[in-house]
Task: inverse folding
């Protein structure tokens, strides 16, 4: 069931005050992270996480932070429904909880990844779940755990509505010429083969936050979400105009262990030389490629920067490849946008790596980009890093994908 700004939500406790408290779930195959928001003033009430879910013989670490209260326990957690149950117990605890009862939770929002043309923000129903299952090959690390957890939660907590905020939703404004591959047109229309783009919640937050900071809604922004998973988005007037990730999260920039852009005709060569099956090649590309594959050491930029400083040649090669890929997208998006007003670095790498920011912006004076070395050094948090003379401002902004999903969930349910 798609929902929008004027979605029908009357049957889902419309105008109920409880809709203002939304639990946002971020799922992995064996993990569950959550944040609880009160949207009356957009404050975060609590956050927590549970790992090793469903692993035989392994105890899960269950952490929670509610205000100044912090705790971590060890216990067996058989599935995601049990994980959410533990979360709700933490939140409603008589001594340190922030909720009087589970009924205060207006909905659970999911930063879901891929459902093809069932994009946008949707109340979770069987149609959506079946579509996500059918497309699991496109997002194998994301769709299966989300579908499994959503089904478990529907059974365990039928009174709490579930909402999926699809990562592709923000990119629905991308025009055809920046979205289509040069394939038979029927592949685009009938088989949904196109550049879907991902990290939509993060790029949506950056678009809104930088407009708020600069007091303008007509900005040309290049949003660089750089983390274990990385993508670039060209944003015009607050809307996505182009995105680096393609049909799957595999495309675009090299990631920590995913190859990024890759010529499909190389796959038969690898199959013949190695004896690997097609499925095995895909698995290696999505788990042994990227920065890990090049360096042979790690997919984590912190490890690679440390190793490079000590003379590790392949770590330096991996970093240079990553930086060159980012620069290529930044440059091409400046051409598509007709210049840029702002380049924003976000995500764990974007917010913390002085080197990556410096190397991406190096020798970009011709494009109006002048990074201030002093500002870039040791800068933490939200800040402008460019020189006063720079025509293009350079910022670091901490993204808040969970807040975006919380807002979308409340809106979908008739806030």
Result:
């Amino acid at each position: 069931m798609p929902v929008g700004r004027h979605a029908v939500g009357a049957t889902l406790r419309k105008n109920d005050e409880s809709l203002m408290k939304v639990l946002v779930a971020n799922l992995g195959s064996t993990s569950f992270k959550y944040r609880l928001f009160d949207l009356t003033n957009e404050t975060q009430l609590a956050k927590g996480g549970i790992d090793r879910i469903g692993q035989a013989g392994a105890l899960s670490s269950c952490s929670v932070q509610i205000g100044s209260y912090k705790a971590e326990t060890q216990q067996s957690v058989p599935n995601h429904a049990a994980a959410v149950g533990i979360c709700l117990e933490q939140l409603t605890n008589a001594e340190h909880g922030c909720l009087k009862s589970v009924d205060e939770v207006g909905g659970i929002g999911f930063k879901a990844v891929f459902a093809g043309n069932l994009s946008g923000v949707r109340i979770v129903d069987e149609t959506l779940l079946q579509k996500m299952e059918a497309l699991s090959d496109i997002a194998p690390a994301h769709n299966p755990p989300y579908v499994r957890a959503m089904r478990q939660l529907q059974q365990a907590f039928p009174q709490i509505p579930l909402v999926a905020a699809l990562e592709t939703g923000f990119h629905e404004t991308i025009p055809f010429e920046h979205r289509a591959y040069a394939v038979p047109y029927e592949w685009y229309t009938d088989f949904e083969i196109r550049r879907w783009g991902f990290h939509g919640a993060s790029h949506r937050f950056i678009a809104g936050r930088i407009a708020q900071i600069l007091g303008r809604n007509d900005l040309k922004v290049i949003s660089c979400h750089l983390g274990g998973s990385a993508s670039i988005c060209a944003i015009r007037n607050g809307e996505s105009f182009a995105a680096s990730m393609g049909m799957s999260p595999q495309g675009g920039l090299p990631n920590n262990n995913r190859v990024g852009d890759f010529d499909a005709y190389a796959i038969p060569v690898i199959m013949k030389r190695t004896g690997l099956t097609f499925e095995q090649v895909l698995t290696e590309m999505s788990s042994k490629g990227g920065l890990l594959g090049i360096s042979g050491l790690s997919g984590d930029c912190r490890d690679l920067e440390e190793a490079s400083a000590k003379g590790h040649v392949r770590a330096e090669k991996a970093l240079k490849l990553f930086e060159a890929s980012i620069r290529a997208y930044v440059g091409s998006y400046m051409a598509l946008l007709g210049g840029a007003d702002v380049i924003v670095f976000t995500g764990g790498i974007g917010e913390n790596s002085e080197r990556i920011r410096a190397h991406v912006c190096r020798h970009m004076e011709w494009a109006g980009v002048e990074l201030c070395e002093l500002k870039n050094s040791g800068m933490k948090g939200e800040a402008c890093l460019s020189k006063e003379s720079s025509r293009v401002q350079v910022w670091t902004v901490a993204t808040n994908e969970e807040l975006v999903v919380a807002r979308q969930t409340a809106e979908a349910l008739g806030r």
